[in-house]
Specification:
Blueprint lengths: L1 H4 L2 H18 L6 E5 L14 E6 L9 E2 L6 E2 L7 E4 L12 E7 L1 H4 L3 H11 E12 L4 H14 L19 H10 L2 E9 L8 H6 L3 H8 L6 E8 L8 H12 L12
Parallel strand pairs: 1-2, 1-6, 2-5, 6-7
Antiparallel strand pairs: 3-4, 7-9, 8-9
Amino acid sequence: MTEWLGTPPGRYLLAWEQAQLDRSVADIFGFHALQLGLPELDALRDNRMPHRWLATDHTAPSANPAVDPVGGSEVPVPARAQVLLHCDFDALPFDSQSLDLVVLPHALELARDPHLALREVERVLMPEGRAVILGFNPNSLWGIRQHLGRLRRRIGFRPGHPLFLPSDGEAIGYRRLRDWLRLLSFEVEAARFGGYSPPFHSQRWIDRFDWIERIGERWWPVFGAVYVLVAVKRVRGMRLVGLARRQRQAAKAAQAVVSHRQAGD
């Protein structure tokens, strides 16, 4: 994934994803936030939570270069006000209902078991906590080209030819992901697609089709190469706390007024 992000299409999508993450997490409040994987994206840089973690399931991110979305050059990973963790995404070292925000930039696609990883995210999120998920869209021009490349490899045609998208992991469709979230009592709060340029390897051709981004967002919005989704964890039967709880208790403790009528009235 890191190697692919250094290519022209990788930098093109990385710039779009960084802009969407900055917009999505800026107004999410709380105390504890977690980014799962892909240290090339600084997913929490516009979030103001005091306690933030970056978790990876491979080598320490400080040893890996990050890709500059604008210039395309390799630069050191910028210093972040967050703690670096090394753990499995399906066994997070956090207590249940302890995090306010979890960002998953392509983490489900690269996880050993995406179902289990998503369940683990649901476990550690507090009620009304947010999950921000980025993923490749298999129902796009980029996804179709990737599917054709895998098919060619399977039948033995050009077996050594590289795929257009990263070969690791498997893309999860947007509707499929919504079904998974619904089973875990998540509610999708916002979603957006991007990356409408045809699957070009050349930066010159990607720049030539810069105009298609605006048209694609208007006329075929669900066929972008990548999507970002914000989901809220809903918990049924939540107990009232604070002022609302005290008001209910006071109402129950208040004596009812009973009127007595004398016989003959």
